[in-house]
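User: Please predict structures.

Assistant: First:
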Amino acid sequence: IEALPAPDFVQDALSLPPKNRLVYKVQRVQCADGLPIAMVVNYLVASQVPSLDKYVNTFSGLYRFLERQYDIKLTSGWEFISAINADFIESQILRIPMGAPLLYTKRITHTALGPLEYGTSKLVADKYEYSVYLDGRVLNGETGLAK
């Protein structure tokens, strides 16, 4: 966990004003059965999570930690999912061949105070499944989301 000025893409994604662009960058490798399956990077608006850097290596579930430690409740978010090929660093950390398929997600989450997080995940494709529940209103076009 490190405090730094938001990179331009994070500043844009979180609509941070130029004078208040301090974020915490949290980097994690997630494992299952002792094997690495995901690389996760989260950028959090520093003003919403003061002194986050003192919690290095004290949590694994970020959102649960934020709720317990800071009483943060996420109100909404966008997630974008695409596919990429593992580069050299990803292949070394995730122990997969270079060029292996990864699911790549980008996520922007909000609280009642506004944008909180811009996060990315690179997940070993054959170790991950994504499911979405669609209720009848969506399937029948009644929500205006799909027609």
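Second:
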Amino acid sequence: AFEKANILFNISSRLYNQAVSGINAESLKPAAKTLCLSATIFDWISSNFDNAPLFDISKPMTKLLSQICLLTAQELA
């Protein structure tokens, strides 16, 4: 389960980086969609891994990262 959480965390982080690195006038909608997907993954991690052994995937940290993704997507919208 711990390995699964780490893989999902890395996927979500990669999605966030991909969304914010390629933002231009034509890619606002796909970037916002990718950010929402990243936020959903972070939220899923925080809901399913309450006692995570690492600070990176702890509940408060993943909730914060989820909110950052959603706020960034909101700014793009």
